[in-house]
Write a structure and sequence with these properties.
By secondary structure, the protein is α+β, with helices and mostly antiparallel strands. It has one domain: Metal Binding Protein, Guanine Nucleotide Exchange Factor, Chain A (Beta Complex), CATH 2.170.150. It has four helices and 14 strands. The strands form three sheets. Strands 11-10-3-4-9-8-7-6-14 form a nine-stranded mixed sheet. Strands 1-2-5 form a three-stranded antiparallel sheet, with no helix packed on it. Strand 8 and strand 9 form a beta hairpin. The chain is globular. The N and C termini lie far apart (51 Å). The structure holds zinc ion (2 copies). One zinc ion binds next to loops.
Protein backbone atom coordinates (compact mmCIF):
# COMPACT_ATOMS: atom_id res chain seq x y z
CA UNK A 1 0.00 0.00 0.00
CA UNK A 2 1.33 3.41 -0.90
CA UNK A 3 2.01 5.65 2.06
CA UNK A 4 1.49 9.37 1.85
CA UNK A 5 4.82 11.13 2.32
CA UNK A 6 5.52 13.98 4.69
CA UNK A 7 5.55 17.41 3.07
CA UNK A 8 8.71 19.46 3.57
CA UNK A 9 8.59 23.17 4.32
CA UNK A 10 11.34 25.77 4.37
CA UNK A 11 11.88 29.50 4.66
CA UNK A 12 13.28 31.12 1.53
CA UNK A 13 16.91 31.00 2.67
CA UNK A 14 16.61 27.43 4.00
CA UNK A 15 17.62 28.03 7.62
CA UNK A 16 14.20 27.13 9.03
CA UNK A 17 13.06 23.73 7.83
CA UNK A 18 10.73 20.95 8.82
CA UNK A 19 7.91 18.71 7.73
CA UNK A 20 4.16 18.32 7.92
CA UNK A 21 2.70 14.90 8.59
CA UNK A 22 0.33 13.29 6.11
CA UNK A 23 -2.49 13.64 8.69
CA UNK A 24 -2.70 17.27 7.56
CA UNK A 25 -3.32 16.23 4.00
CA UNK A 26 -6.34 14.24 5.24
CA UNK A 27 -7.85 16.58 7.82
CA UNK A 28 -6.54 20.01 6.90
CA UNK A 29 -8.55 22.73 5.20
CA UNK A 30 -6.89 24.61 2.40
CA UNK A 31 -8.04 28.15 1.80
CA UNK A 32 -7.05 31.47 0.34
CA UNK A 33 -7.24 34.30 2.86
CA UNK A 34 -7.64 37.83 1.55
CA UNK A 35 -8.19 39.52 4.93
CA UNK A 36 -6.80 42.93 5.83
CA UNK A 37 -4.56 41.48 8.55
CA UNK A 38 -2.91 38.96 6.23
CA UNK A 39 -2.37 41.79 3.75
CA UNK A 40 -0.87 44.00 6.47
CA UNK A 41 1.45 41.19 7.62
CA UNK A 42 2.63 40.64 4.04
CA UNK A 43 3.38 44.35 3.72
CA UNK A 44 5.27 44.35 7.00
CA UNK A 45 7.45 41.50 5.75
CA UNK A 46 8.16 43.29 2.47
CA UNK A 47 5.91 41.26 0.23
CA UNK A 48 3.85 44.08 -1.25
CA UNK A 49 0.08 43.90 -1.62
CA UNK A 50 -1.32 40.38 -1.84
CA UNK A 51 -4.99 41.42 -2.02
CA UNK A 52 -5.70 39.81 -5.36
CA UNK A 53 -4.00 36.46 -4.86
CA UNK A 54 -4.66 36.02 -1.15
CA UNK A 55 -2.54 33.85 1.12
CA UNK A 56 -2.57 30.12 0.39
CA UNK A 57 -3.01 28.36 3.74
CA UNK A 58 -3.76 24.96 5.18
CA UNK A 59 -5.46 25.03 8.56
CA UNK A 60 -4.46 22.04 10.63
CA UNK A 61 -3.37 20.79 14.07
CA UNK A 62 0.02 21.85 15.49
CA UNK A 63 0.96 18.23 16.31
CA UNK A 64 1.30 17.57 12.57
CA UNK A 65 4.21 20.06 12.35
CA UNK A 66 7.85 19.23 13.05
CA UNK A 67 10.34 22.08 12.93
CA UNK A 68 13.56 20.17 12.33
CA UNK A 69 16.05 23.00 12.18
CA UNK A 70 16.31 26.77 12.62
CA UNK A 71 13.86 27.26 15.50
CA UNK A 72 16.12 30.03 16.81
CA UNK A 73 15.41 32.10 13.68
CA UNK A 74 11.67 32.19 14.28
CA UNK A 75 10.03 35.44 15.30
CA UNK A 76 6.42 36.45 15.79
CA UNK A 77 4.59 39.43 14.39
CA UNK A 78 1.52 40.56 16.28
CA UNK A 79 -0.57 43.27 14.67
CA UNK A 80 -2.54 43.94 17.85
CA UNK A 81 -2.57 42.77 21.47
CA UNK A 82 -5.38 40.27 20.81
CA UNK A 83 -4.45 39.13 17.34
CA UNK A 84 -3.11 35.75 16.30
CA UNK A 85 0.61 35.03 16.38
CA UNK A 86 2.11 35.38 12.91
CA UNK A 87 5.29 33.32 12.87
CA UNK A 88 7.99 34.22 10.37
CA UNK A 89 11.60 33.32 9.72
CA UNK A 90 13.67 36.30 10.90
CA UNK A 91 16.60 35.23 8.71
CA UNK A 92 14.84 36.06 5.44
CA UNK A 93 11.41 37.41 6.53
CA UNK A 94 9.44 34.48 5.19
CA UNK A 95 5.94 34.29 6.69
CA UNK A 96 5.46 30.67 7.80
CA UNK A 97 2.64 29.96 10.28
CA UNK A 98 -0.27 31.59 12.07
CA UNK A 99 -1.29 30.26 15.49
CA UNK A 100 -3.55 31.37 18.31
CA UNK A 101 -1.96 32.81 21.44
CA UNK A 102 -2.19 29.80 23.75
CA UNK A 103 -1.11 26.17 23.31
CA UNK A 104 -4.49 24.85 24.50
CA UNK A 105 -6.12 26.41 21.46
CA UNK A 106 -4.60 23.88 19.08
CA UNK A 107 -4.68 25.64 15.74
CA UNK A 108 -2.14 26.40 13.07
CA UNK A 109 -2.38 27.73 9.56
CA UNK A 110 0.67 26.88 7.47
CA UNK A 111 1.52 29.31 4.66
CA UNK A 112 1.88 27.03 1.67
CA UNK A 113 4.40 29.26 -0.06
CA UNK A 114 6.86 27.50 2.25
CA UNK A 115 6.29 24.12 0.58
CA UNK A 116 6.90 23.03 -2.97
CA UNK A 117 3.82 20.79 -2.83
CA UNK A 118 0.76 22.85 -1.88
CA UNK A 119 -1.26 20.34 -3.91
CA UNK A 120 -0.59 17.74 -1.19
CA UNK A 121 -3.32 19.48 0.80
CA UNK A 122 -5.91 19.16 -1.90
CA UNK A 123 -7.68 21.91 -3.74
CA UNK A 124 -8.57 25.26 -2.20
CA UNK A 125 -11.97 24.67 -0.58
CA UNK A 126 -12.65 28.08 0.97
CA UNK A 127 -11.94 31.76 0.46
CA UNK A 128 -12.10 34.24 3.28
CA UNK A 129 -12.55 37.99 3.12
CA UNK A 130 -12.69 38.18 -0.67
CA UNK A 131 -12.76 41.87 -1.64
CA UNK A 132 -16.03 42.89 -3.33
CA UNK A 133 -16.19 45.99 -5.48
CA UNK A 134 -18.21 48.59 -3.58
CA UNK A 135 -19.15 46.34 -0.66
CA UNK A 136 -17.88 44.50 2.38
CA UNK A 137 -15.67 41.43 1.84
CA UNK A 138 -17.37 38.04 1.60
CA UNK A 139 -16.52 34.49 2.52
CA UNK A 140 -16.95 31.55 0.20
CA UNK A 141 -17.56 28.32 2.05
CA UNK A 142 -16.65 30.02 5.35
CA UNK A 143 -19.08 27.97 7.46
CA UNK A 144 -17.38 24.72 6.62
CA UNK A 145 -14.00 26.26 7.46
CA UNK A 146 -15.12 27.38 10.93
CA UNK A 147 -16.71 24.03 11.77
CA UNK A 148 -13.54 22.20 10.82
CA UNK A 149 -11.31 24.52 12.85
CA UNK A 150 -13.45 23.98 15.94
CA UNK A 151 -13.73 20.22 15.54
CA UNK A 152 -9.96 19.88 15.11
CA UNK A 153 -9.34 22.00 18.21
CA UNK A 154 -11.80 19.97 20.29
CA UNK A 155 -10.34 16.65 19.09
CA UNK A 156 -6.80 17.81 19.92
CA UNK A 157 -7.96 18.94 23.34
CA UNK A 158 -9.77 15.73 24.24
CA UNK A 159 -7.02 13.42 23.00
CA UNK A 160 -4.22 15.41 24.67
CA UNK A 161 -2.59 15.92 21.25
CA UNK A 162 -2.60 19.69 21.89
CA UNK A 163 0.46 19.07 24.09
CA UNK A 164 2.50 18.07 21.07
CA UNK A 165 3.25 21.49 19.70
CA UNK A 166 6.49 22.91 18.29
CA UNK A 167 5.29 26.46 19.00
CA UNK A 168 4.93 26.71 22.79
CA UNK A 169 6.77 25.94 25.99
CA UNK A 170 4.14 24.01 27.91
CA UNK A 171 5.72 24.80 31.28
CA UNK A 172 5.11 28.50 30.87
CA UNK A 173 2.49 28.52 28.11
CA UNK A 174 4.64 31.03 26.24
CA UNK A 175 5.54 30.88 22.56
CA UNK A 176 9.11 29.72 21.88
CA UNK A 177 9.96 32.82 19.80
CA UNK A 178 10.02 36.53 20.63
CA UNK A 179 6.87 38.54 19.88
CA UNK A 180 7.09 41.86 18.06
CA UNK A 181 3.92 43.74 18.83
CA UNK A 182 3.97 46.65 16.45
CA UNK A 183 2.78 50.01 17.70
CA UNK A 184 -0.30 51.82 16.53
CA UNK A 185 1.50 54.15 14.15
CA UNK A 186 3.45 51.43 12.42
CA UNK A 187 0.27 49.40 12.26
CA UNK A 188 -1.72 52.19 10.60
CA UNK A 189 0.88 52.43 7.84
CA UNK A 190 0.27 48.79 6.92
CA UNK A 191 -3.44 49.18 6.20
CA UNK A 192 -5.21 50.91 3.34
ZN1 LIG B 1 15.35 32.06 6.24
ZN1 LIG C 1 -6.18 36.41 6.74
Amino acid sequence: MATTPFTAFSCRCGKVRGRISPASARSGTRLLCHCRDCRAAARYLGRGDIAQDGVDLVQTSPDTIDIETGTGHLAILRLGPKGPLRWYAGCCKTPMFNTLARPGLAFVAVLLDTTDKPGAFGPVVAHSFVPQPGGPPRHKNGGRMVVRVLSRMIAARLSGRWKRTPFFDLQTGDPIAPIHLIDREARAALYD
